[in-house]
Design brief:
CATH topology of the largest domain: Cytochrome Bc1 Complex, Chain D, domain 2
Radius of gyration: 22 Å
Structural class: mainly alpha
Bound molecules: heme C
Strand order of the largest sheet: 1-2
CATH class of the largest domain: Mainly Alpha
CATH superfamily of the largest domain: Cytochrome c-like domain
Largest sheet: 2 strands, antiparallel
Shape: globular
Helix content: 25-40%
Order of helices and strands: HHHHHEEHHHHHHHEEHHHH
Length: 435
């Protein structure tokens, strides 16, 4: 696959904006625009934050406000659900439980359709593009559909995305923007909103809506919260420590094109000074098994086909996009309780084993039955499946990863959890050595 990470100014990223308008343009303003053609619909030419506020809050104020709003339950129809209910800060802004899909809706009883992704390390996700030319190496190679927020890349920005959960009937389930604003206006956070944006904020619904989404969006770009690069692996990349023997073996398997070949999609090395996000943002079909624990899947006619729909609607009928989902970052993956877009696995070793067995022992992945292989992707779309390493062997062939190697990869993936603190005992040992 050999996609390289796009060139990104991620480490020096935003919050350098002059006024709120520049924020809407941060994606276009970074050198990424050289690699990613922005979709040229008329609507996207009008900057979302073109609205002028009475006050132009500074990034610090916006971040603090966004943090509060992120946990504000009054923003939901039930009054019981906040962004943080599904995107728990203590779980890398992913779910706190092992459920494949979370419950939402007006009474907190409606199951969703997809696993809740972590919101960390999204600062560099490029806008969705059908063709992606990477300016790292051979920039004439079209690497196919890439980027966009949500598993299928349908949301163009964090503010466009945030409108989704606020109004989705399965999530925060508000009837309208006006309903959200009425609740916000009557909530304890209204005063902070007025302090930040101006006393008359709520008199203009468009302005108030933009203010809400702006605060949420800026909060989600806070480096300390969302992309701290402070895992054990980051300390290793900085030369501050050695990995354990098992972690180092796992990393080698992860990178080895003949074994895991994981790094061909989940980038693991520093590129142009930017630390790796463990994704190239590619939209790829890998054919994970159908998850019968998702209630919607009780209906055999329901299929989540990713980029070609049905949740995403602009590329319906484009058969070549069926089964594609955005490659997620593997940072903090050990904190997750459900893996892949449909949360079909609840253990990390199962998720890794899927790669070893998909082609060599499909009966172990999809069950043995008539034609159970790729049971969530109709046959006519199966040409879309990725067949490069670690995939591609024949049934009965030798898996590219042994059980011991799977265990090592899992051990390595645990080094990608943020907030690493070197164990005290290491310091003592190190101090003894230097004496
Ligand atoms: C009921 C659970 C739930 C709530 C509440 C919720 N989300 Fe989500 N969020 C999801 C799910 C599920 C997805 C994936 C949707 C998809 O791919 O179709 C998602 C995706 C996202 C994404 C895109 C992540 C990615 O990997 O591309 C962002 C950003 C996001 N949510 C922010 C928010 C914000 C901000 C709020 C509050 C306004 C919020 N979410 C509330 C469940 C939730
Ligand atoms: C061809 C690109 C590609 C390769 C190679 C690849 N992955 Fe993935 N990975 C993906 C995509 C795409 C998804 C999401 C698929 C989905 O949800 O349907 C994913 C999802 C995952 C997840 C689930 C993460 C989450 O948040 O749910 C894990 C774990 C994972 N990959 C680990 C690995 C490991 C370990 C390897 C090597 C053995 C590997 N991947 C190789 C593209 C790839």
């Amino acid at each position: 696959m050999n996609r390289a990470a796009p060139f990104l100014a991620k480490l020096t990223l935003p919050l350098l904006f002059v006024g709120a308008i520049a924020l809407a343009h941060w994606v276009k303003a970074t050198p990424m625009s050289a690699a990613v053609p922005a979709p040229s619909t008329a609507a996207s030419d009008v900057p979302f934050y073109a609205t002028r506020f009475e006050h132009q809050p500074d990034p610090k104020t916006l971040t603090a406000l966004g943090r509060v709003l992120f946990s504000d339950r009054t923003l939901s129809a039930s009054g019981e659900m906040a962004c943080a209910s599904c995107h728990d800060p203590a779980h890398a802004y992913g779910p706190a439980n092992h459920l494949a899909v979370q419950l939402g809706g007006p009474h907190g009883t409606l199951p969703g359709l997809r696993a809740v992704p972590s919101l960390k390390y999204h600062q560099a996700v490029p806008p969705f593009a059908e063709r992606f030319f990477d300016n790292d190496g051979d920039d004439s190679r079209d690497q196919g559909p890439t980027g966009g927020l949500d598993w299928d890349g349908r949301a163009g920005s964090a503010h466009e995305q945030a409108a989704g959960p606020l109004l989705s009937p399965f999530e925060m389930a508000n009837a309208s923007k006006e309903a959200v604003l009425a609740q916000l206006r009557a909530s304890p956070n209204a005063a902070a909103m007025r302090d930040a944006f101006g006393a008359h904020l709520f008199d203009d619904p468009k302005r108030a809506w933009n203010a809400l989404l702006l605060a949420l969006e800026v909060f989600q770009q806070s480096p300390r919260d969302f992309y701290p690069y402070d895992s054990k692996y980051d300390a290793y990349l900085r030369g501050q420590l050695q990995l354990s023997a098992a972690e180092a073996r796992g990393l080698a398997v992860f990178n080895d094109p003949e074994k895991g070949n994981c790094a061909s999609c989940h980038i693991s090395t520093v590129k142009r000074g930017a630390f790796p996000d463990f994704t190239d943002f590619g939209q790829i079909a890998i054919g994970v098994p159908r998850n019968r624990a998702i209630p919607a899947n009780a209906d055999p006619a329901f299929r989540d086909l990713g980029v070609c729909g049905p949740l995403r609607t602009d590329l319906q009928g484009r058969d070549e996009y069926c089964g594609l989902f955005r490659t997620p970052s593997l940072r903090n993956v050990a904190l997750r309780g459900a893996f892949f877009h449909n949360g079909v696995y609840t253990r990390l070793d199962e998720a890794v084993r899927f790669y070893a067995l998909r082609d060599t022992a499909p009966q172990k992945v999809y069950g043995s039955g008539r034609t159970h292989r790729f049971d969530d992707l109709p046959e006519k779309y199966q040409d879309n499946l990725n067949k490069e390493g670690p995939f591609g062997a024949q049934p009965g062939g030798k898996p590219t990863l042994t059980e011991a190697e799977i265990a090592d990869v899992v051990t390595f993936l645990k080094t990608l959890t943020d907030g690493y603190v070197a164990p005290q005992v290491d310091k003592v040992a190190a101090a003894k050595k230097t004496r």
